[in-house]
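Reopening this one. Same input as before:
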Amino acid sequence: MPVKTAVLGYGRSGSTLHAGPIEKLDDFQMTAVCDIDPRALEQANKRFQCNLYEDYQDMLVKEDLDLVVIVTRSHQHAPMAIDCMKAGKNVLVTKPWAVNVEEAREMIRTAAETGTQLLPWLPARWGCDLKRLRELVRSGIIGRVFQIRRSVFTFGIRHDWQTLKECGGGYLLNWGPHIVDQPIQLAGGRVKSVFAHMKQIINPGDVEDMFFGMLKTEEDITVVVEHNIAASGLPDWVVQGDRGTIFVRGKQVEVHKTTFPETFDPGEYRNPVTISVGKEELTGNPYGDQFEIYVHIARAVRGEEPYAISLDSALNLSVVLAAIRQSHETGETVRC
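Same output, byte for byte:
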């Protein structure tokens, strides 16, 4: 049976990233769309034969739903998810699933109390870059990894709610679930300390458009994460091992392996010899294939397989994002 689904928030992401797979996959049936903007509902009405709502509470009362996909403004995600779960509906919550740790914990408690499924949307965990980097690191080609850097550089100016603190805006909550989460997953384990800085540079509003963080994991791996303003920037990824380095620029991967001349003469410096192992082009999407993810979501909702993202790991990400903000505000290293 198809998963009876409602999209709550039919804006840019709701109408494309989410409604696209729901519309085209046989695993889903678009049952309802809810949005406060009549223009969005008009667009949904032209596309789907489903019920339309301006009030999501009304939708929760009237509709028999297997899944509600929440794609509203960031500050609304957790409260709406909690209401949906209390109404007996499973929820998929887009990033950021919560604007603080307390909201994340309240959602987890509500899911446990109601017996509903709470599915955090972190599509970058399906990214082609993360997948390939895991394969390369596990192969041992660059030896023991001791530092991972993940960077995104943009030069665009926004004029929407993402620039407003009251709406849960800011680049930490918008980009953090991608570029903070990915290197943590690659490093493995938990983050134990964070030192960070944030700044508002070119965007209007009252939130940051730049953040920089240095994270240290329990495995003693340093993770550097950055969203910054630049016309061109560093590689998207730099993964450093004691035998080489991996660089990712867009979809191009370069592996540089380093060897040393064998000498035991204390007076002779061991000059490294660096060999480029080669280049390759990634196939796929660095932020995940939406259709692949939605096929998995359908199976998870039907109880055919566990959801790939545990609530514990999503909560851990919320803790790290909160630590980045706290470190910026205090100027101190924050233990997680």
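So the earlier flakiness isn't reproducible anymore. For the record, The chain has two domains: 3-121, 125-287+318-335.
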